[in-house]
């Protein structure tokens, strides 16, 4: 048992959160994680409509009676997204924990707090975390350079970011990005975090509703199998390193400051995550995956994974670290 | 007291090494660190000739009777560097610990081992660490993305790199890059490291033989005040973020794949570290500094710094971490 301010706040057994991942974080995964004693999170925008989200929350509730949450990510998008309707659907669904991410979440934080919902805000910089704290969120999930997907533009790693965030904030901080095993959880706790958020690691679990071929790619991958794209647009994203991603990165380098999204539209269009995850075309499309791939060696159940990580972290704390100070 | 395989191997009190830094790692700093119970390291190539190195080692010996080492970095250079003569000078000086870094250290490792010298090899990738272990080095200092100076091209952070290195190697591993405080030392030990290497942090100490203005810049700086340059040349370096560095980075981005060192020669020539460190022109030149600047808040003596870090790490291990598992 690892009891922290975050486990107490959320009423969960273990200080491990499953991050909201577009197309991946559906009811099966969230329920698997919550049943394993962690905090499962579904992604609102994976559902085509707010009504579908309400149904998905209800479906998750048939699979677990433990706390779980919903992620609402606010990012600029080509197609207009009715964020406010999704936020209302989250409230109507009766969910009591929300993970916000992206830009200007203030309006939505107000809505959630008024509905008695606990809010974890995910961000990549201490200054954004301070803003979120001022807006009234209950905890911060701080995303280091290690993370998959939107990594921000600062490139600060968890080793630096976590202690700085902990010192700057009063509310609990959990570390996010690159986490997948017990030593890392112990390290995060040493740095002052009250738990960790894991995304990519939970993709390689039995419950993750994605193709087995993608899970196997993560098992086979090493720590060097992710790369950053879209930096030139200040919309940097960490994706799995395959031929498509390498080609996007190459074009971006070649164009330098003149790079435009149109330069890679032929590679990106129709090739984003959903098709990869559903069809297993992990070599054909662009999909988010973090540096943590280097420490992913198997595809356990969520419960097995969570219990192993917590048990390994406890062993590090009670065994190795104690023996060093003895 | 934190006793590890590394402290035992090197015969030092605390698991903290001061990394070899060109122009900075002179006798004063190495002696200060070793007198503080850490492992001080002088940089061979900071000395203009191999003979000067022998004199500098002798000078260091007048300041401390504790173990200290010499760094030998093998990198391509415009002016030819007599690495072999420096290596022989290290042996002749009677120093018993060497830190190697850079490319193809095999020949030098053989020389040092034949002379009964303990060798720590610093590198940025697990595959390079495995090669060094096969070549017979005694320990690895693995350099994460956080580090100042030559950061490599893989961009793997310590959170991932340390556990992977520890799992892959039999010899002791110390973590390097971004370290500057006690929670981070505790975290490194949790990840499996047997200690940490600190470079930039030791620049902001009383003993560091550099201008006070540079030390103050590090105290004032935040975690975002470093940036990477020379990536296009696959010779990536993390330097302090000032106007010169920003301009180099801007030109590099603008040129993209066509970037050549000649494009920034007017900015780099005569503006590298030595003048910055000696004259305090921290805004005028290019100088190495890591992400750790964000956690540097004062200019203590080496001994004060080392004892504070170890004491804070012990407090984390015996206090916070124990209470979480209780």
Would you mind describing this structure in some detail?
Chain A has 326 residues and is an alpha/beta fold. Chain A is 43% helix and 15% strand. Chain A has 14 helices and 11 strands. At the A-B interface, α7, α8, α11 and α14 of A face α7, α8, α11 and α14 of B.
- Structural class of chain A comes to alpha/beta
- Work out the number of β strands of chain A: 11
What Rg of chain A is obtained from the alpha carbons, in whole angstroms? 19 Å
- CATH fold-level assignment of the largest domain in chain A: TIM Barrel
Query: Helix and strand succession of chain A?
Result: HEHEHEHEHEHEEHEHEHHEEHHHH
Which geometry of chain A do the CA atoms define? globular
How is the biggest beta sheet of chain A arranged? 8 strands, parallel
* Most extensive interface between two protein chains, with residue counts: A-B, 51 and 51 residues
Oligomeric state of shown chains: homodimer
Our measurement of the CA-to-CA distance between the termini of chain A, rounded to an integer number of angstroms, reads 23 Å
Query: Helix count of chain A, per DSSP?
Result: 14
What is the domain total for the residues of chain A?
Answer: 2
- Widest sheet: strand ordering of chain A: 1-9-8-6-5-4-3-2
CATH architecture of the largest domain in chain A: Alpha-Beta Barrel
CATH superfamily of the largest domain in chain A: Aldolase class I
How much of the sequence lies in strands of chain A comes to 5-15%
CATH top level label of the largest domain in chain A: Alpha Beta
> What ranges of chain A have pLDDT less than 50 throughout 5 or more consecutive residues?
none
Mean pLDDT of chain A: 95
Helix content of chain A: 40-55%
């Amino acid at each position: 048992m690892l009891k922290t301010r975050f486990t107490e706040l959320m009423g969960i057994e273990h200080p491990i959160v499953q991050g909201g991942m577009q197309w991946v974080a559906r009811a099966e995964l969230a329920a698997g994680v919550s049943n394993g004693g962690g905090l499962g999170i579904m992604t609102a925008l994976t559902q085509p409509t707010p009504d579908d989200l309400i149904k998905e929350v209800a479906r998750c509730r048939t699979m677990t009676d433990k706390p779980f949450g919903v992620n609402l990510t606010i990012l600029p998008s080509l197609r207009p997204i009715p964020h406010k309707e999704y936020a209302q659907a989250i409230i109507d669904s009766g969910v009591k924990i929300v993970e916000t991410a992206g830009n200007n979440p203030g309006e939505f934080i107000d809505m959630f707090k008024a509905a008695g919902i606990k809010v974890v805000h995910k961000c990549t910089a201490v200054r954004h975390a301070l803003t979120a704290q001022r807006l009234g969120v209950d905890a911060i999930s701080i995303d280091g350079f290690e993370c998959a997907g939107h990594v921000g533009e600062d490139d600060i790693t968890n080793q630096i970011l976590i202690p700085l965030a902990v010192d700057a904030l009063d509310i609990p901080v959990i570390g996010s990005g690159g986490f997948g095993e017990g030593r890392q959880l112990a390290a995060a706790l040493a740095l002052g975090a009250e738990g960790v958020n894991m995304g990519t690691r939970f993709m390689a679990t039995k419950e993750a509703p994605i193709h087995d071929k993608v899970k196997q790619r993560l098992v086979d991958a090493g720590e060097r199998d992710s790369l950053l794209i879209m930096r030139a647009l200040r919309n940097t994203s960490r994706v799995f390193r395959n031929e498509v991603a390498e080609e996007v990165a190459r074009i971006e380098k070649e164009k330098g400051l003149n790079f435009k999204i149109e330069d890679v539209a032929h590679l990106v269009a129709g090739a984003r995550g959903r098709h990869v995850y559903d069809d297993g075309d992990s070599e054909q499309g662009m999909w988010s995956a973090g540096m943590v791939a280097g420490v992913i060696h198997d595809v356990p159940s969520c419960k097995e994974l969570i219990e192993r990580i917590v048990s390994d972290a406890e062993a590090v704390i009670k065994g190795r670290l104690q023996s060093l100070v003895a």
